[in-house]
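HUMAN: You are asked to prepare a plain-text protein record giving the amino acid sequence and the backbone structure tokens, both parts labelled.

ASSISTANT:
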Amino acid sequence: MTITIRRTEPEDYAGVQRIFAGPQVVWGTLQLPHPSVEVWRKRLADTPDTKYGLVACSGDEIVGQLDIHMLTNPRRRHAGQLGMAVRDDMQGRGIGAALMQAGVDAADNWLNLLRLELEVFVDNERAVRLYTRFGFGIEGTLVQYAFRDGQYIDVYKMARLRPARGERASG
């Protein structure tokens, strides 16, 4: 399977909505079940300049997405917050790794971000392994951070600092 990574476009809304309609994606993110196509159309139509979005495609199908939200507070402009998801039926095929590689490259070499941050549910072991592979470390645990499937769940706060020039990034 060939995976192509490209920038997110407004007309990608139906494919992105399909990603977030999957039960495994809902389980692993802060999205609510049964996402509206119209909500995703509006989100992608009104993308701020501070958001850098990528999609992963297999042929003409959108199978994954990654966003980096660049922070605007003058004291936090060196940081970005990363979120990603891979369509339920496409997980475990290297799509997440391809998106992470493209996202880390953009953050390091084009967006001038020193620090990338994310939150991940503590029981999402596959995602924690992926993020660790790309140089993210656990900085702490946020207790009862989110409500999921009838109970409160903890998340890890993870972050990655851009390697100094000459050092090799993980991945």
